Amino acid sequence: MADKEPLIITGKDEMRQWSRSARAQGKTIGFVPTMGYLHEGHLSLIKESHKHTDLTVVSIYVNPGQFSPNEDLSTYPSDFLGDIQKLKSIPGGVDVVFHPQNLYDYGNNDGLCDGENRVKTEGKVMSCLENNGMGHETWVRVEKLEKVLCGKSRPVFFRGVATIVTKLFNIVEPDVAVLGKKDYQQWRIIQRMVRDLDFGIKVIGVDLVREEDGLAKSSRNVRLSPEERKKALSVCKSLFNAKSDAESGQRQCKELRDCVVRAISEAGGKVDYAEIVDQESLEPLEEIKSPAVFCIAAWFGNVRLIDNIEINV
């Protein structure tokens, strides 16, 4: 049924009560954590959740804990009403949208934070977590997996991701969590965290969704100028070429990486990293002998994009 009106819950206690009531009725719960500004990639995760559970909860929460002071919390796109319309358009819809204002407010908030978890201090927009007195000091670290790939240039990012997902798991109490493989490292980190901390949750990864021209779907794509958008296509095109080359027998990772870096650089992008790693451990590979994934992060103007492609040879 399309146009299903989701229940919108903002409070942690109310969310827990809903989940426990549903489970008492024998229902299973799927969970899709998002930061909003939904696109087809997010909607594909919800459709996957429908296959595994009776009910689906989607969270919409811009997590300040994964942004460092020089990152784009203040410009992260938001369209809550538009998101609700997109969720209603999915056959079967969603049962609950969990939309808390601030999951780091423990009753000592000074009231300065806005609905997007931001505070203005001396004209500068920053995360609520940088505001004195918030009281949050407990973090979840997946120590080895968080240090590679995106972790090299974003040292607090996965600490923030693992912590907020732990908080959301403890509040929503799902049976299944569905995540996109576009954030490949994030997916693997949450899988490992769930295993290591004995969460009773099955984590499912869904292949990334691409635009018609091949660009990986991302909430940040709207910030690309038309010219930057054309340049950004060098990422997916070079990844597809690398996968084809590997399947044709080129298994040396340095040669594959060099071709991709050259293609992106010649198109005007600035490569943050281009790494071929083991799909499970994310350890860098010199030669492809087992299932690998080619992960890329690159800047086009002020927009940082990530993409990846699995290579199974």
Helices and strands in order:
Elements: E1 7-9, H1 12-24, E2 29-34, H2 40-52, E3 55-60, H3 80-89, E4 96-98, E5 118-121, E6 124-127, H4 150-153, H5 157-172, E7 176-180, H6 184-196, E8 202-206, H7 226-247, H8 253-266, E9 270-278, E10 292-300, E11 303-311
Parallel strand pairs: 1-4, 2-3, 2-7, 3-4, 7-8
Antiparallel strand pairs: 5-6, 9-10, 10-11
Helix pairs in contact: 5-6, 7-8
EC number: 6.3.2.1
Pathway: Cofactor biosynthesis; (R)-pantothenate biosynthesis; (R)-pantothenate from (R)-pantoate and beta-alanine: step 1/1
Subcellular location: Cytoplasm
What does this structure look like?
This protein is an alpha/beta fold and 313 residues long. The protein has two domains: 7-206, 3-Layer(aba) Sandwich (Rossmann fold); 219-311, Pantoate--beta-alanine Ligase, Chain: A,domain 2 (2-Layer Sandwich), CATH 3.30.1300. Helices cover 34% and strands 20% of the residues. The protein has eight helices and eleven strands. It has helices spanning 12-24, 40-52, 80-89, 150-153, 157-172, 184-196, 226-247, 253-266; strands spanning 7-9, 29-34, 55-60, 96-98, 118-121, 124-127, 176-180, 202-206, 270-278, 292-300, 303-311. The strands form three sheets. It has a six-stranded parallel beta sheet with strand order 1-4-3-2-7-8, with helices on both faces. Helix 5 (157-172) packs across helix 6. The chain is globular, with a radius of gyration of 20 Å. The model is unreliable at 110-128 (pLDDT under 50).
Helix content: 25-40%
Mean pLDDT: 90
Helical region count? 8
Give me the CATH architecture of the largest domain, please. 3-Layer(aba) Sandwich
Major sheet strand order: 1-4-3-2-7-8
Computed over alpha carbons, the radius of gyration is 20 Å
Binned strand content: 15-25%
> What would CATH call the homologous superfamily of the largest domain?
HUPs
Biggest sheet character: 6 strands, parallel
The shape is: globular
Rounded to the nearest angstrom, the distance between the terminal CA atoms is: 41 Å
Tally of distinct domains: 2
Which fold name is given in CATH as the topology of the largest domain? Rossmann fold
Count of β-strands: 11
Order of helices and strands: EHEHEHEEEHHEHEHHEEE
CATH class of the largest domain: Alpha Beta
Q: Could you say which structural class the secondary elements and strand pairing correspond to?
A: alpha/beta
Stretches where pLDDT is under 50 for at least 5 consecutive residues are: 110-128
Identify the quaternary structure here.
Answer: single chain
Subunit structure: Homodimer.
Main location: cytoplasm
Keywords: ATP-binding, Cytoplasm, Ligase, Nucleotide-binding, Pantothenate biosynthesis
Pfam families: Pantoate_ligase
